[in-house]
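Re: weekly structure request thread

Next one in the queue (261 aa):
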Amino acid sequence: MQGSANLNVMVKAARKAGRSLVKDFQEVENLQVSAKSAGDFVSRADIAAKKIIKEELTEARPTYGWLGEESDPVAGQDPTRRWIVDPLDGTTNFLHGLPHWAVSIALEHKGQIVAGVVFDASKDELFVAEKGKGAWMNDRRIRVSDRHRMIESIYATGLPFAGRSDLPATLSDLAQVLPACAGVRRWGAASLDLAYVAAGRYDGFWERSLNIWDIAAGLILAREAGALVEGIAKNTKPEDTGDILCATEVQFEQFSRIIRT
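Done, posted below.
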């Protein structure tokens, strides 16, 4: 697609950080070290990617604010615009040598996400979207699936770990969703879950207790590809709550009714 100047800046930053992460990812499988040492290595890779992205974005747009996982928020001179960044979404996958992780960059303008980039560097899949201009993967327009029946559809979610308090709610969700569909996937990177809904690979996605940088870029991808996105609780937005419910327009009513039971 012919992107705006801001989108071009975002793509350049994502690709540069992605190249750095791929190089580090190739070393992860070769590390014969303790879990702590491997974790430290991945933390350094994450921080290096953040540094690359921040330098690229700040050089191009020095007045914009910044919100990201690995750093304190920065209020820009322009109070209407800020970058929302996750330099490595899917850190646990990265740590374990699983090639399913992404660089996620979004641009917020006056409280609305107006552009997003999700770069799956290990597969060289670049997902981009701008408000009103559709969603794209590697220069190909993407749309949500047209499956009408849940029993033929696949959904994605996140499973709580390490004693998170939303485990009972998620188990209840699964008890309702699994009998009604063709499968549920948990691949460990929310930005890619939303990108896959946009590309028609998944028919829906839901998860609780996410951070805005986990989903910001994915939100505009899904919406521009034709998905409906709301908070899990009625009349809420995932940008505010971190709880997200996303599905194709033809399935949203049925899917949301099951999750909201």
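The chain has a mean pLDDT of 93. The CA atoms of residues 68 and 216 lie 11 Å apart.
Next request, please.
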